[in-house]
Amino acid sequence: MILINNVISILSLTSMLFFIGLFGIILNRKNILITIMSIELLLLTINLNFIFFSIYLDDIVGQVFVLFILTIAAAESAIGLAIITVFYRLKNSIELDIIKKNIIIKI
Amino acid sequence: MYLLLVFLSLFGFCLASLFGRHLGPRGSGFITTSCLFVSLLISFFVFYEVALMNCPVYIKLVTWISSEVLNIDWGFMFDSLTVVMCVVVTFVSFLVHLYSLEYMSHDPHLSRFMSYLSLFTFFMLILVTADNFVQMFVGWEGVGLCSYLLINFWFTRIQANKAAIKAMIVNRVGDFSLLIGIFVIFMSYKSLDYATVSALTPFLKNEIINFLNFNFNLFTVIGTFLFLGAVGKSAQLGLHTWLPDAMEGPTPVSALIHAATMVTAGVFLLARSSFIYEYATNILSYIIVIGAITSFFASTTGLLQNDLKRVIAYSTCSQLGYMIFACGLSNYSVGIFHLSNHAFFKALLFLSAGSIIHAVNDEQDMRKMGGLRFLVPFTYSMIVIGSLALMGFPFLTGFYSKDLILEVAYGKYTLLGYFSYCLGTCGAFFTAFYSTRLIYLTFLSKPIGHKQIICFAFDSGINISIALGCLAIPSIFIGYYTKDMIVGLGSDFFGSAIFTNLVNINIFDAEFINLFYKLLPVSLSLIGVFLAFFLYSFKLKLLFELKTSIFGKKIYNFLNRKWFFDKIYNEYFGQFFFKFGYTTSYKFVDRGIFEILGPTGLSLVALKIGSSFHKMQTGYLYHYNFLILVGITIFFGLRELWIVFKLFNYYSLIFIIFMVIFFLINYVKLEK
């Protein structure tokens, strides 16, 4: 019941977390791993939101969605990490700037 | 038969131009000349029937324009004013045709020349016989067109081309205002027939018309515009510059167009619209001033011209000034009388000049002639008759009309009357002077030309001699014979053709002016003759010293260069319009504003915006992410701000904002 009374605080927590993740993507210019971590954070925030609303509205569907999203997040990070690995094998680096440079050189 | 008078010349034109190749030069010349001869005979008959028997003829041919209230017919009106013009036009034109047969006989394009001459005559006849303003305008434009074709007859010469274009354009300035005048007439009278307009005129006396946001009296507006038309056609001061340049055409053309027919159209228009001018007295005073100044200006300019034809052209200009101010003094009949007399002796002068030019191997400069009186005696006698008639020698044709004009000018007893009398009398003196100068330099002085030319100088053949002889007779007698009929006291010759307000009639006053002022013009002319003769025969050295003195040089330049009118027109008006046409309307508007707003500017803006959008795709992942964030923010933000934007649903405001942004972008682009 505490949750229900503190709607604003919980929502602001989740949105703050969301924006932290967002700014993590935008402001990060070096490391691609941090980008992936930020994406994970975004998904996490959304999960939190879903859970909160599922409890708040007393509806199970939200938690079902959270389970799905968890699976998808796991799959996504696995695929993303795989792509990074492949990329690292090719370029010997995972810096974001180098990605761009290489693309231009390729073209 | 009345229609035949008008359309025979068109018939001649059609035959000579369409079948000139088959008829050959002699055949087409014969056909056009005989057509004109028949039409001359008819016009004599018409003159007898209409003018002498006093029965005007009105012929309605077909309806031309019939649209609601605008009703224009192809109608022909033969009243005494028209038939006087018809006789003059056909007489001079027939003799010019005859003359050209020999004068142009060596030209390979004789049939074209004859067809143009006939077409010109046809349009002039249309002009004088029309019974409404629009049909008159057909003739008005037609003679302009034919003057272009005829001046430009030797189209390979650049000077002829330029002169023809100048004639056409300067005339067109006047034609434009004539058109405006006709429009105003239609707007206020709802009719363009002379008969209707003249009948309605007294009722519109106090009509006010709004022109260019000013309120004017109706007749002031109409009178101004019709007069400006006449200024263009009759080569009055301001639009006179085309007339001397038009001497580039063959000499018969000058005789036909610039002496007898085309330039008289302006005077004819004034006489024809006398019913309007009689109620527009303030415009009449302007007409007097312009006419008087023109007569003075042209006669002074004629003093020091060295080209044989130009002297005569300026004397035409000067005589037209006399006619115009006679019309301005409300003595339209006197103006028309001078017009008809002038046509005869001016045609004689021009044709004689052509004969001289023919004799001395196409040399036109008077300074290179001299001593021709024994070589071409017939032409000599003819040109002396013409010159004496021109300078108003007593009891020749010019005397009766020119002195009458000056008498009525003095007899007006107004300031403007005295003004025109003074300028006209000075003009008469100068006219006598330059006529004598012309004769002296060409015939009486010692031979100056090349020996080869002088040796082979000869009097012209039978056709030219007949034409000159036929013109010399009316040059001597016609003034005396028709004076009492046309301008005699109490003569009802013009009847209803010319309307003169009773207040303005002053021919009786002119009869009783001081004897001194009656004799002054004639005596001044005689003094001019003797002075010129004396100076050129015995005091050549004095003249030379006068000419080469510092002050004399300036005056000589001033008069020889036509008062610098051409210079001023070319340098200020011509150059201004050329510059305006190139810099402003071409470079600034057409290739400037329109292109920036149109193809160049728009495509550049599209390119610029496109490239700036292209630049957004930097290739950095974090930039894309940032753009996604910004986009989402704007999207949601706009959704909230829409409440505010709803207030600004004035599309004009949005359009203005768009245009301002557009121009700013372009401005930035141009600054680069």
Automatic annotation (TrEMBL), chain A:
Segments traversing the membrane: 6-27, 39-57, 63-88
Main subcellular location of this protein, as a coarse class: membrane
Intracellular or extracellular location(s): Membrane
Membrane topology designation: Multi-pass membrane protein
GO CC aspect terms: NADH dehydrogenase complex
Cited HAMAP family: NDH1_NuoK
Gene Ontology terms: biological process: ATP synthesis coupled electron transport
Family: Belongs to the complex I subunit 4L family.
Tagged with keyword Glycosyltransferase: no
GO molecular function terms listed in the Swiss-Prot or TrEMBL record: oxidoreductase activity, acting on NAD(P)H
Keyword tags: Membrane, Mitochondrion, Transmembrane, Transmembrane helix, Transport
Record's protein name: NADH dehydrogenase subunit 4L
UniProt key word Magnesium: no
InterPro entries reported for this sequence: NADH_UbQ_OxRdtase_chain4L/K, NUOK/Mnh_C1-like
Automatic annotation (TrEMBL), chain B:
GO MF, one example: NADH dehydrogenase activity
Keywords: Electron transport, Membrane, Mitochondrion, Mitochondrion inner membrane, NAD, Respiratory chain, Signal, Translocase, Transmembrane, Transmembrane helix, Transport, Ubiquinone
Catalytic activity, reaction form: a ubiquinone + NADH + 5 H(+)(in) = a ubiquinol + NAD(+) + 4 H(+)(out)
GO cellular component: mitochondrial inner membrane
Entries under InterPro entries matching the protein: NADH_DH_su5_C, NADHpl_OxRdtase_5_subgr, ND/Mrp_TM, NU5C-like, Proton_antipo_N
Transmembrane segments: 30-50, 82-101, 113-130, 136-155, 176-192, 212-232, 253-271, 283-304, 311-331, 372-396, 416-441, 453-479, 485-503, 515-538, 592-609, 621-638, 650-668
Chief site of localization: mitochondrion
Residue span(s) of domain NADH-Ubiquinone oxidoreductase (complex I) chain 5 N-terminal: 64-114
Locations listed in the record: Mitochondrion inner membrane
E.C. number: 7.1.1.2
Domain NADH dehydrogenase subunit 5 C-terminal span(s) in chain numbering: 489-636
Membrane topology: Multi-pass membrane protein
Domain NADH:quinone oxidoreductase/Mrp antiporter transmembrane: 130-419
UniProt cross-references to Pfam families, sorted A to Z: NADH5_C, Proton_antipo_M, Proton_antipo_N
Recorded family membership: Belongs to the complex I subunit 5 family.
Name of the protein: NADH-ubiquinone oxidoreductase chain 5
Species: Amicula sp. isolate GU52X-4 cfCalB7
